[in-house]
TrEMBL record:
Gene3D superfamilies: 3.40.50.2300, GPCR, family 3, nine cysteines domain. This is Vomeronasal type-2 receptor 26-like. It is found in: Cell membrane. PROSITE patterns: G_PROTEIN_RECEP_F3_3 (PS00981), G_PROTEIN_RECEP_F3_4 (PS50259). Keywords: Cell membrane, G-protein coupled receptor, Glycoprotein, Membrane, Receptor, Signal, Transducer, Transmembrane, Transmembrane helix. The keyword Amino-acid biosynthesis does not apply. It is a multi-pass membrane protein. GO terms for molecular function: G protein-coupled receptor activity. The chain crosses the membrane at residues 538-563, 575-596, 608-633, 645-669, 697-720, 732-752, 764-787.
Amino acid sequence: MSDVIEDLSTRSVTKFYQYLLALVFAVKEINENPHILPNVTLGFHILNCYYLLKMTYKATLSLLSTHQNFTPNFKCGTQEKLIAVIGGLMTEISTSIARILAIYKIPQLTFGSFSTAQRDRYTSLYQMVPNEAYQYMGVVHFLHHFRWTWIGLIAVDNDNGDRFLQAVLPLLSQNKICYSFILRIPKRTYKDEILISLLGLQEQYSHLVEFKANVYFVYGEPPTLPILSMLLYTTENWILQGKVWIITSHWEFESLSIQKIWNTEIFHGAISFTVHSNQPPGFQKFLHTIRPSWARGDGFIRDFWEEAFSCSLEISNVHEENKRICTGEEKLENVPGILFEMDMTGHSYNVYNAAYAVAHAFHAIYVSRSIKRRFKDGGHLEFLNLNLFLRSLSFNNSAGDTVHFNENGELVEGFDVTNWITFPNSSFVRVIVGRLDLQAHQGQELTLIDDIIVWHRNFNQVLPHSVCNDNCNPGYHKKRKEGKKFCCYDCAPCPEERISDQVDMVACVKCPDGFFANNHQNQCILKDTSFLSFKEPLGIILVVFAISFSLITAWVLGAFIKYRETPIVKANNRSLTYILLISLLLCFLCSLLFIGQPQNVTCLLRQTAFGIIFCIALSSVLAKTITVVLAFMATKPGSRVKKWVGKRIGISIIISLSFIQAVVCILWLSTSPPFPDKDMHSLSRKIILECNEGSVTMFYCVLGYMGFLATVSFKVAFFARKLPDSFNEAKFITFSMLVFCSVGLCFVPTYLSTKGKFMVAVEIFSILASSAGLLGCIFLPKCYIIILRPEMNSREQLIQRKNKKFFA
């Protein structure tokens, strides 16, 4: 292990050599382009900071000194015209450079990460990458897209990793995503520190396979990926468990030459949010010209060549290091992609654009007449002017992409969602499977092509799941587990009359009015309407009874009209009898208003019409009874009641008593009339179409008044039941009132305890029973005599029965 650590701390990363070549290629294009900086040649210095702050400061200060002497702030002797600095790859390196360059307002274009917390302190710093916060939100959108709510977090163990966690943890919580664990990657420093960190973390990383999360969100900087690879490589059985690795844009699949023999299978199917890149024309052709002897000033080419091809350019080192001799004709396209790529990577594309940004800004200054004159006269470029032009810069590069900065000096560009497909020979292919567009409408920032995403082979190309527990299916809702994170929950069935129609609903919802929950409680079904119809059996039966009683009443009325001159008809006040029979006929017909779908007219008429008509019937009964009592009292010698006996007294009673009921009904209709209504709640699976009575008080006033009349009629009839009259109706009226009162007492509790069409059926039954009670009790005995015993319907029989009763 110590030999590996030695290599890790001293060897260069071969993949980073492409950044240098991207700069060389860009400067070469600019110098050969007659439309950019004509008669001006750009040059560059490339300095290596070795990931060390000390070397970073030294390299930066050397750029501000003379060509030979290292003396800050003293510019004596020959010196190149420094116009801008491009670097660095890591936040710590970029910040260290910015601290020095900010003093002189020298533009710095960083192509790696940079802390947004320190952004305001460095006004001459420009980021060739978008703000980090956007890609974090993009990752959240990505997790939501695949319904992954249980992930692992791995971050580099430095200030940047801390800032990453501080930014990401609240974002995940706000979007209902939980983390299973947080692991830290040791930052690259010295050999001894790396070795101690690896030994301390090896046990933690060995438990990665035990975590239930299948998705790992990893934040790191370029030097940390080899360290993570080493940790995973030394962990037992790590290859047995496939995971989805989501990595940030600052990582490249760079590696060291010692990792060429390692299996990269663990990262197969990884997803990264990379800064949008493109392929400038001619770049690959340029790479094919690279050889160890291609340029004298390239101090990196020999080390790169030996690392990339595992050979030695020095014959003396061949036997010492057991390497073959480099021919110098090796081809870069044969190097595994994990070490070097022929396609321009995202960071290289940033370097390429940075060089062009400086060139275009400088060109804008150069073509300005006043500045151009000063520059030709030997004057120095004012960095402040270059900053002004950089802030407002916008140009199209050779790949066709637009390059410009926002007000914070950050590149206005999105991210490519890249799928990394690895192969056993340590090569890989990058496939763009989506894009994060920062200027898209809210909710449409992330676009993905799911079908072309390749997952780790352990998933057998089935969409991976990464949740704390299985989803709650429709019909169930999430129930939080005590002591667990909110992503871990039990699934409880929905309560009665509530549904959940989506996966993982927090709470079941009540169906809208007019709908009910199905048996599985995962769907709302439209309720059927319910009303007493003419077509259903119950409605047909009631219609048959109503019509039958109406016909019977009509027949009785016809019989009484036919035999109107007979003693039994004359003795019972023909006018009141006709009124009573007609009112009973109308009462039977009124019951038909209660059947069928409620309408405005039927709702207005059915209670009020029956209330008035039946009140006329009760008034007729009372008038008949009072007439009998008055007639008997008039037979006594010296009675003054004789003048009250006659037809007018009965009609007056009917009109006066019915008028009171009519006034009550008019008040009811004018203040709060009945109307068609829908009862959504009484029945769980039916909508009851009913007539809402409007004012319950007025409804019971109508019923109460009829009950009052029936009670008075009962008392008067009961008093008159023993009067000496052969055709005295008092007994029959008493029985009819008992029937009505019995029906009324049964009606109220039954009416209040039933709903829907059965409540309407109770009303109809009460109407039919009450009316039939009057018809049967009062007229059935008379019809018996008129039809079956006509001999009893004679004046002699009347006198004989009256005398018998009188002498008895």
